[in-house]
């Protein structure tokens, strides 16, 4: 994004980032921790706290939370909400069986407690793909 912002045809004041699932985690982390680069982020079904995610996956890469507490905490966007600058849209399906909606609910609460403005959209009973009916049209 920093390189793209150097092109005359790019408005660097309007560069955003979008991600879904792990990409949603990355979009969240970028707007929280790399807040000088992106002006907005859209995060769909993101992991916001690695302690909430599947231990088979997390422990393979980060060992256990007891052995690597700082690794889990430093890389969880929920712990960096105070750094949010710019616009943030958080989207999740309430029936997500991969990244539990608890990730987004806890993130929303952390943002509220940090007095940070954000937008959110919860899709009732939709899974990780947020698919079915007219959800994709609306999304």
TrEMBL record:
Domain Peptidase S9 prolyl oligopeptidase catalytic: 5-137
InterPro entries: AB_hydrolase_fold, Peptidase_S9_cat, Serine_Prot_S9B/DPPIV
GO biological process: proteolysis
Superkingdom of origin: Bacteria
Pfam families hit by this protein: Peptidase_S9 (PF00326)
A molecular function (GO) term: dipeptidyl-peptidase activity
PANTHER family documented for this protein: DIPEPTIDYL PEPTIDASE 9 (PTHR11731:SF193), PROTEASE FAMILY S9B,C DIPEPTIDYL-PEPTIDASE IV-RELATED (PTHR11731)
Protein name per its UniProtKB record: S9 family peptidase
Organism encoding this protein: Colwellia ponticola
Upper taxonomic lineage: Bacteria, Pseudomonadati, Pseudomonadota, Gammaproteobacteria, Alteromonadales
């Amino acid at each position: 994004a920093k390189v793209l912002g150097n092109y005359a045809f790019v408005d660097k004041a309007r560069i955003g980032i979008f991600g879904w699932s792990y990409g949603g985690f990355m979009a969240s982390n970028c707007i929280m921790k790399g807040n000088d680069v992106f002006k907005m982020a859209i995060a769909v079904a993101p992991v916001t706290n690695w302690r909430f995610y599947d231990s088979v996956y997390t422990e393979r890469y980060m060992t256990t939370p007891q052995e690597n507490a700082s690794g889990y905490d430093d890389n969880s966007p929920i712990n960096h909400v105070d750094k949010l600058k710019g616009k943030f849209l958080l989207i999740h399906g309430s029936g997500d069986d991969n990244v539990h909606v608890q990730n987004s609910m806890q993130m929303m609460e952390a943002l509220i407690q940090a007095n940070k403005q954000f937008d959110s959209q919860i899709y009732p009973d939709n899974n990780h793909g947020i698919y079915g009916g007219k959800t994709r049209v609306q999304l």
